[in-house]
Design brief:
The protein is α+β, with helices and mostly antiparallel strands. 21% of the residues lie in helices and 37% in strands. It has six helices and 13 strands.
Length: 286
């Protein structure tokens, strides 16, 4: 059940919030195979259809738990931001607890951020960077350069699935075991602009922002789909414009995001903050 108490509160300086959060993320494998039996019998068109339909199947699958991981390399050091949470796919709403390691924030201890994902908006508590303790920050996801695909330190399962609606190429790589179930492994690329056009209305704005803000219009993926056609795991490889002076290949930073879904049918309750609990001051960007 989703309990929405309070109206949307907007931060006075969304630009500063966006810049600060993106800098936190940017400053700073998977299943064992069982062979590719019958992979040659699955055509490229069938693979594309299976990937595209996985997003639709997820929308009708009720609720689930999720695990997320966002990996990046900063100055030769690999940084991983992990999260756990629950999502209601019918209401397109969920809650994540994201752990930001000290390497990503420049702090001595890990910061634990609570995030509420809703259609068109992201709420963050313990955001840091000048936000008072206990206060929430609300950000319109369509204003973020990546549409919040990794800005909050995670790719939520709804956004991860909506990306697959823009599949351009796909191939079948056999069956594997994941969370005790047989899944089918697909690999290919998605077109961000096509995903924005094909997405549910509540996701179009954020994916259109990502199509403009990311370095590459195409995103490589590995998707794992169960026997019911539901998405169970997906890994995306994003490319972001690199900040001036940052180490690594000039002009581009690579980020790998993995989202896993399990525990379908779990109860989900998301309570939005009251207006007085939403911080509306100016955010200090690092």
């Amino acid at each position: 059940m989703v309990v929405q108490r309070g109206r949307k509160g907007r931060a006075a300086a969304v630009g500063e919030v966006c810049a600060g959060t993106v800098l936190v993320v940017l400053a700073a494998a998977g299943c064992s195979g069982r062979g590719a039996a019958a992979a040659a019998d699955v055509s490229a068109a069938e693979a594309r259809a299976a990937v595209r339909e996985a997003a639709e199947a997820l929308a009708g699958s009720g609720t689930s738990r999720t695990r997320t991981a966002v990996e990046m390399t900063n100055g030769g050091t690999r940084v991983t931001i992990r999260g756990t949470g629950v999502f209601d796919y019918g209401r397109r709403t969920g809650r994540l607890r994201v752990v930001l390691p000290g390497e990503a924030t420049g702090e001595s201890e890990r910061r634990r951020v609570v995030e509420l994902v809703t259609p068109g908006a992201l709420y963050m508590r313990n955001r840091g960077a000048g936000v008072p303790d206990g206060k929430w920050v609300r950000v319109d996801t369509a204003t973020l350069p990546d549409g919040n695909l990794v800005t909050g330190g995670a790719t939520d399962p709804i956004s991860a699935a909506e990306l697959l609606r823009g599949v351009r190429s796909a191939s079948f790589h056999g069956e594997e075991r994941l969370h005790g179930e047989t899944v089918r492994h697909y690999r290919g690329t998605v077109d961000l602009a096509a995903a924005a056009e094909a997405a549910e209305p509540s996701s179009r704005g954020q994916l259109a922002a990502a199509a403009k803000g990311l370095s590459n219009r195409t995103v490589a993926f590995d998707a794992y789909v169960d026997e019911r056609g539901r998405l169970r795991k997906v890994r995306h490889r994003f490319a972001f414009p690199r900040a001036s002076g940052a180490p690594g290949r000039e002009g581009e930073a690579a980020v790998v995001s993995t989202t896993s879904l399990y525990g379908f049918g779990v109860p989900v309750e998301v309570e939005l903050p009251e207006p007085e609990d939403i911080y509306t001051g100016r955010i200090a960007a690092p």
